[in-house]
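Quick check before the chapter quiz. The format below is the same one you will see on the exam, so make sure you can read both the input and the output lines.
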Amino acid sequence: MRLFIESSAIIAERSGIGAFTKRLIEAYHKEFPEQKIKLFGFRLFYRKFTPPIPKTDSLNYRLIRWFPGKIYTGLFKNGVPLPIDAFIGASRKDVILFPNFVRWPLVLNKRSVAIIHDLSFVFYGQYSSGPNKDYMLKFVPKTIKKANHLITISECSKKDMSEYYGIALDRVSIVNPFIDMSLFKRTSSSEIARVKHKLKLPKKYLLYMSTIEPRKNVIGLLEAYQKLPKKVLEEYGLVLAGGKGWLNDEIHAEADRLVDQGLNIVRTGYIADEDLAALYSGATLYVFIPHYEGFGISPLEAMACGIPVITSNNSSLPEVVGKAGLLVNAAKPLETTKAIEKLLNSPALCKRMVKEGYSQAAKFSASRSAKQLQSAIDKVSS
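Here is the expected output.
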């Protein structure tokens, strides 16, 4: 049995799904080096291709160079389904993994697994782009019907899928995202100083690190921050780190308003991988209170860097942080304000949370996720 993996999201510039897919493939290949893997996607013959994951004896690429990917997906979206297994030479005994919510058409091959990361497009569709939401609402139900097996990334998402779409629980496996422990760890004071200087960060700061968009409840975080006592606001800045998301004009307008009032709010934009650990390590607290997360890996990254975490008590976040995080109601900013004050005034509590955070982050390893993926594949290949 060969494992074919739809890899458009890693062949092109990597988004969040692409980064997750790349890390998962690398972890799986390391854990199961004998498994034959074919990464497939569209790349026209005149475009240069640099493999995002190095080729090995058992991992290779099946690029479709003679047919434009945009035409293929355009036909698919408009009701002209071209079977992708015929394009890539998959046989009936092979398994095809679709890691980006939607199973593409198949005719020769019936063994397919699709990863549906979460149902944010259902529950918080107002925070998704219109075309993307419409695409998900149309094709995710078809994927659920046609895929042999489904994967999601948390117990919360599995429960959501079962209840909303009526899926039998045994049709859904969980493959958790994981921490790269070689990247996310406590860094030296000199490295922290380098990143603080590079990004022009405050001496002391509370950190938010994720996409800047409404679903992440950044407005709620700004409201919680401005309610802190004046003495705390003078001592601690708020750093909003992360790339641009959807519908963020209101967020930036509110941040501008607070800066004009004298609050120390720094927006860094996208953070390079080599600066992430120091950015986390330099923070006093990590505060992340989204409305909904299919998994929410940034609290684990903060924990791995030795930072106490405040996060929402909704969706997947309680299972992600376990007993190591302080949970608040995302809809009540004053709860977040009080949680921040509590930790700033409780060194012993912070010390305990840091210790428990290291243990919690270590539970989500690359090896564990690779084995979860293999278990899901076994359910189809057998």
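If your answer matched, good. Residues 76 and 312 are 38 Å apart (CA to CA).
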